Structures are given as C-alpha cells and as structure tokens.
Amino acid sequence: MKTAVVCDTGRVRSNNQDRAFASGEPVGPLPDLLIVADGMGGHNAGEKASELTVETMLAEIKERTNCPDDIGLWFDTLAQDANRAVFEASIENQAWAGMGTTLVAACVKDGWIYGINIGDSRMYVIRTDADGTWQLEQISENHSYVGDLVRAGILTKEEARRHEKKNLITRAVGQEPEVQADIIMERTEGVQLILLCSDGLTDMLDDEEILRILKLPGFNVQEMAENLTKKANDCGGYDNISVVMADLRGDEV
Predict the structure, then answer these.
(1) Is residue 12 pLDDT above 50, yes or no?
(2) Using N-to-C axis directions, what is the helix angle for 221-234 and 207-214, rounded to 10°?
(3) Domain 2-247 has what CATH class?
(4) Does residue 235 sit in helix, strand or coil?
(5) Rounded to an integer, what distance in angstroms lies between the CA atom of residue 56 and that of residue 37?
(6) C-alpha angle with apex 12: 8 to 17, nearest 5 degrees?
(7) Any residues with CB less than 8 A from the CB of 170 and at least 6 apart, and which?
(8) pLDDT confidence of 43, banded at 50, 70, 90?
(9) Can you count the helices (H) and strands (E) in the chain?
(10) Distance of alpha carbon 98 from alpha carbon 179, whole angstroms
C-alpha cells in the first residue's frame, strides 16, 4: 500500500505542534499504519503532547510480535497508554501543564479499515459509488463544541466551519487520567483512498474542495497530499497542516 505524509507549519504559526506518521510497510505486527496528532498548549506543550502520543504508540506497536484479533480494541489500549503518558508528563513538568492533543490513527487488514479517533482531527475515505464516481465520506466524528451542535441539528457543517468556537474540542489526549475514544471499523470495499488530517486542512478547505483536489488527474498519492497542503496555505494557512494518505488502488496513478 502506498502512503503519503505532509506535516506543514502553515503560514501563520511559528512552530509546528502537529505530528504525523505514515507507513505502507509493516510496523510491528500491523501491515501498515497512519497517525495524525494535533497538539495544543502554551509554549512547546502542544508539540510535546503530540510528539509523546505518537512516540508512545509507535514504541508499543513495535514491541508486540503478534497482531491482536481486535485491532480496534488494541488501538484503544494504545490511546489510553498515550493519554496516561501525556497526562503524567503534564503534571511532572509545570511548563507542560494542561497540554493535550487530538489523535486519529488507522491501519488496513483483511478487508477492513481499523481506526481510532479523539478530538477533531478527521478520517475520511474516498469511495466509488455505483457509477464509479468518487465520493468523500468522513468516517470519524468531530469531538468539538460545534461538532455537537451539528449532530444536534443546530448548525450546518458550513456554519460550523465559520463559528467562533470551531476550535473548542471536547475530547483530547492528556487532559484527564482517562479518555474516551471512538473505535472505527469500515469495510474497504469501494475505497480508493484514506485521508487523515488535522483541522489546519479542514478549517481552510471544505469537503467539496478537498474532493475536487483529490480528483485532479495525473497525481500520485504523495502529490495529492502536497496539493491539499498547498491549497490550504494558499487559503491562509492559519494553522499547522497535517495530511496523511493511503492509496488502496494498488497501482500508482
């Protein structure tokens, strides 16, 4: 499986608090692995939270020799361990007090996409419908103030994108001793691409624009990720931008 990763500071922020990882080759017992973490906190705290989350997960994955029967449940265990590591680090070091991070991660095995999500970083699939047309489908939920309002029917998705509290998240790794995570299981049937991203992308581009860019002909998966990042920067680049992708089509375009 071909993968791509771009983790860009953007045009406004002075440092990058995002961390992103992608491997189409085995990582420990997993056949592949995709991760995005979008850190939050003053000074370097957000950067530390996202870094510690990704490092903790990778270390534990690489230590294991056999793949568990329930990968989604294992992802939840990994997220809880990362949450504990970030929470304890924030208590031990006053400079990191209150730090946290979003987390979205996925792998593909035996016809299934297994994933986990905490916060408002997103997981999408690009799937073909009956007539072969590409459709963009968000398969994660936004754990955010405006996400709750959208699910309640109070705001539309477009209104949520413009809302003054759009960046207020309701779940994050490292904020409490334990964290609630969403486990994701999705069939790969019809899926062409998987996209994980931080809100630095989705605050700048709506779903229609993301799909339009992905459908541009002649680009491989790394170039697709770079095109999305460039467009987000062209639209302002107000936040760090992480784009992680996997191409399930088999052959390079």
Answers:
(1) yes
(2) 140
(3) alpha beta
(4) coil
(5) 12
(6) 50
(7) 143, 144, 145, 147, 148
(8) low
(9) 7, 11
(10) 14
Q: What is the pLDDT, as a whole number, of residue 52?
A: 98
In 10 A of CB 156, how many CB atoms?
Answer: 11
- One-letter amino acid of 155: L
Q: From residue 248, how far is each of 24, 74, 107, 173, 188 by CA, in Å?
A: 10, 23, 11, 29, 8
CA 140 from chain center: how many Å? 9
In Å, the largest CA–CA distance within the chain is: 56
Provide the mean pLDDT of the chain. 93
Distances, alpha carbon 174 to alpha carbons 50, 96, 100, 125, 223, in Å: 10, 11, 5, 27, 33
Question: Which of 39-43, 87-91, 167-171 comes out lowest in average pLDDT?
Answer: 39-43
Position 44 scores a pLDDT of 78
| Residue whose structure tokens are 């085995």 | 26
Q: What is the mean pLDDT of residues 55-61?
A: 98
CA–CA distance, 232 with 234 (Å, rounded to integer): 5
Closest by CA position to 237, among listed 199, 195, 194: 199
The domain limits of the chain are 2-247
Q: What dihedral angle (degrees, nearest 10) is formed by the CA atoms of 17, 219, 248, 251?
A: -140
Dihedral of the CA atoms 63, 67, 69, 75 (nearest 10)? 50
Rounded to whole angstroms, the Cα distance separating 31 from 213 reads 28
β-strand pairing of 182-187 with 134-138 = unpaired
Q: Angle, nearest 10°, between helix axes 45-63 and 71-92?
A: 140
DSSP state at residue 30: B
| Residues written for the chain | 253
Q: Which of 11, 9, 10, 17 is nearest to 37 (CA)?
A: 17
- pLDDT tens per residue, range 182-216: 999 999 999 999 999 999 999 999 999 999 999 99
Residue 9, pLDDT above cutoff 90: yes
